[in-house]
Protein backbone atom coordinates (compact mmCIF):
# COMPACT_ATOMS: atom_id res chain seq x y z
CA UNK A 1 0.00 0.00 0.00
CA UNK A 2 2.96 2.34 0.67
CA UNK A 3 4.22 2.26 -2.91
CA UNK A 4 0.79 3.29 -4.22
CA UNK A 5 0.76 6.32 -1.92
CA UNK A 6 4.29 7.23 -3.00
CA UNK A 7 3.24 7.01 -6.66
CA UNK A 8 0.20 9.23 -6.00
CA UNK A 9 2.40 11.80 -4.29
CA UNK A 10 4.82 11.69 -7.23
CA UNK A 11 2.12 11.87 -9.92
CA UNK A 12 0.28 14.86 -8.47
CA UNK A 13 3.34 17.02 -7.81
CA UNK A 14 3.40 20.27 -9.75
CA UNK A 15 6.56 19.29 -11.63
CA UNK A 16 4.95 16.15 -13.03
CA UNK A 17 1.89 18.06 -14.23
CA UNK A 18 4.07 20.82 -15.71
CA UNK A 19 6.08 18.19 -17.59
CA UNK A 20 2.89 16.59 -18.97
CA UNK A 21 1.62 19.97 -20.17
CA UNK A 22 5.02 20.66 -21.75
CA UNK A 23 4.97 17.34 -23.61
CA UNK A 24 1.46 17.97 -24.95
CA UNK A 25 2.32 21.50 -26.08
CA UNK A 26 5.57 20.21 -27.58
CA UNK A 27 3.69 17.62 -29.62
CA UNK A 28 1.29 20.27 -30.91
CA UNK A 29 4.22 22.59 -31.69
CA UNK A 30 5.86 19.74 -33.64
CA UNK A 31 2.75 19.44 -35.82
CA UNK A 32 2.77 23.19 -36.46
CA UNK A 33 6.44 23.13 -37.45
CA UNK A 34 5.91 20.09 -39.70
CA UNK A 35 3.10 21.92 -41.46
CA UNK A 36 5.19 25.07 -41.74
CA UNK A 37 8.05 23.16 -43.32
CA UNK A 38 5.98 20.84 -45.50
CA UNK A 39 3.30 23.28 -46.64
CA UNK A 40 4.99 26.70 -46.58
CA UNK A 41 8.78 26.42 -46.80
CA UNK A 42 9.40 23.33 -48.93
CA UNK A 43 7.16 24.11 -51.96
CA UNK A 44 8.94 27.39 -52.83
CA UNK A 45 12.32 25.83 -52.00
CA UNK A 46 11.56 22.89 -54.28
CA UNK A 47 10.45 25.29 -57.00
CA UNK A 48 13.70 27.26 -56.69
CA UNK A 49 15.76 24.12 -57.22
CA UNK A 50 13.79 23.02 -60.27
CA UNK A 51 10.49 21.66 -58.96
CA UNK A 52 12.08 18.97 -56.81
CA UNK A 53 9.95 17.69 -53.93
CA UNK A 54 12.35 16.49 -51.25
CA UNK A 55 9.95 13.95 -49.76
CA UNK A 56 9.80 12.10 -53.08
CA UNK A 57 13.58 11.84 -53.48
CA UNK A 58 14.67 8.23 -53.19
CA UNK A 59 17.11 5.71 -54.58
CA UNK A 60 15.60 2.42 -55.73
CA UNK A 61 17.72 -0.38 -54.30
CA UNK A 62 15.56 -3.19 -55.67
CA UNK A 63 12.75 -2.81 -58.20
CA UNK A 64 9.28 -4.11 -57.43
CA UNK A 65 8.80 -7.74 -58.42
CA UNK A 66 5.29 -9.17 -58.54
CA UNK A 67 3.54 -8.45 -55.25
CA UNK A 68 6.76 -7.43 -53.48
CA UNK A 69 7.14 -3.65 -53.19
CA UNK A 70 10.26 -1.86 -54.32
CA UNK A 71 13.03 -1.38 -51.79
CA UNK A 72 13.99 2.29 -51.70
CA UNK A 73 16.33 4.52 -49.78
CA UNK A 74 14.17 7.59 -49.02
CA UNK A 75 16.84 10.23 -48.49
CA UNK A 76 14.35 12.99 -49.38
CA UNK A 77 12.33 12.29 -46.25
CA UNK A 78 15.58 12.42 -44.29
CA UNK A 79 16.37 15.86 -45.75
CA UNK A 80 12.84 16.95 -44.82
CA UNK A 81 13.35 15.74 -41.24
CA UNK A 82 16.66 17.60 -40.96
CA UNK A 83 15.01 20.82 -42.14
CA UNK A 84 12.20 20.27 -39.60
CA UNK A 85 14.79 19.81 -36.86
CA UNK A 86 16.72 22.95 -37.80
CA UNK A 87 13.56 25.05 -37.76
CA UNK A 88 12.43 23.61 -34.40
CA UNK A 89 15.90 24.09 -32.90
CA UNK A 90 16.00 27.69 -34.13
CA UNK A 91 12.52 28.41 -32.75
CA UNK A 92 13.49 26.97 -29.36
CA UNK A 93 16.76 28.94 -29.41
CA UNK A 94 14.89 32.20 -30.06
CA UNK A 95 12.34 31.39 -27.34
CA UNK A 96 14.98 30.54 -24.72
CA UNK A 97 17.03 33.60 -25.67
CA UNK A 98 13.97 35.83 -25.27
CA UNK A 99 13.10 34.31 -21.89
CA UNK A 100 16.68 34.74 -20.66
CA UNK A 101 16.72 38.38 -21.81
CA UNK A 102 13.44 39.05 -19.98
CA UNK A 103 14.84 37.43 -16.82
CA UNK A 104 17.96 39.62 -17.01
CA UNK A 105 15.84 42.76 -17.48
CA UNK A 106 13.69 41.72 -14.53
CA UNK A 107 16.77 41.19 -12.34
CA UNK A 108 18.21 44.59 -13.32
CA UNK A 109 14.97 46.44 -12.61
CA UNK A 110 15.27 48.38 -9.35
CA UNK A 111 13.41 46.86 -6.47
CA UNK A 112 11.22 48.85 -4.13
CA UNK A 113 12.96 50.23 -1.06
CA UNK A 114 12.60 47.97 1.96
CA UNK A 115 9.70 48.66 4.29
CA UNK A 116 10.96 50.06 7.60
CA UNK A 117 10.50 47.85 10.65
CA UNK A 118 8.18 48.79 13.53
CA UNK A 119 11.18 49.85 15.59
CA UNK A 120 12.43 52.18 12.85
CA UNK A 121 8.98 53.73 12.49
CA UNK A 122 8.75 54.24 16.25
CA UNK A 123 12.23 55.80 16.38
CA UNK A 124 11.31 58.09 13.49
CA UNK A 125 8.19 59.24 15.36
CA UNK A 126 10.24 59.88 18.52
CA UNK A 127 12.81 61.86 16.52
CA UNK A 128 10.11 63.97 14.91
CA UNK A 129 8.49 64.67 18.31
CA UNK A 130 11.84 65.68 19.81
CA UNK A 131 12.50 68.00 16.86
CA UNK A 132 9.06 69.58 17.27
CA UNK A 133 9.67 70.17 21.01
CA UNK A 134 13.12 71.64 20.39
CA UNK A 135 11.70 74.10 17.86
CA UNK A 136 9.08 75.45 20.30
CA UNK A 137 10.25 78.49 22.28
Automatic annotation (TrEMBL):
Database matches in InterPro entries: Mechanosensitive_channel_CS, MS_channel, MSC/AndL, MscL_channel
Alphabetical UniProt keywords: Cell inner membrane, Cell membrane, Ion channel, Ion transport, Membrane, Transmembrane, Transmembrane helix, Transport
GO cellular component, as recorded: plasma membrane
Protein location: Cell inner membrane; Cell membrane
Bilayer topology: Multi-pass membrane protein
PROSITE patterns for this protein: MSCL (PS01327)
Transmembrane parts of this sequence: 20-38, 78-96
Primary localization: membrane
GO MF terms held by the record: mechanosensitive monoatomic ion channel activity
Function of the protein: Channel that opens in response to stretch forces in the membrane lipid bilayer. May participate in the regulation of osmotic pressure changes within the cell.
Subunit structure: Homopentamer.
Family per similarity comment: Belongs to the MscL family.
Matching HAMAP family: MscL
PANTHER family on file: LARGE-CONDUCTANCE MECHANOSENSITIVE CHANNEL, MECHANOSENSITIVE CHANNEL MSCL
Name assigned to this protein: Large-conductance mechanosensitive channel
Top-level taxonomy: Bacteria, Pseudomonadati, Pseudomonadota, Gammaproteobacteria, Pseudomonadales
Gene that specifies this protein: mscL
Amino acid sequence: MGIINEFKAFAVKGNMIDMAVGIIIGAAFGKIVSSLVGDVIMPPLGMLIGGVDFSDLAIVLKAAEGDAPAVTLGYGKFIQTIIDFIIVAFAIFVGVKTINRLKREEAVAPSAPPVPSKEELLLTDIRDLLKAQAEKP
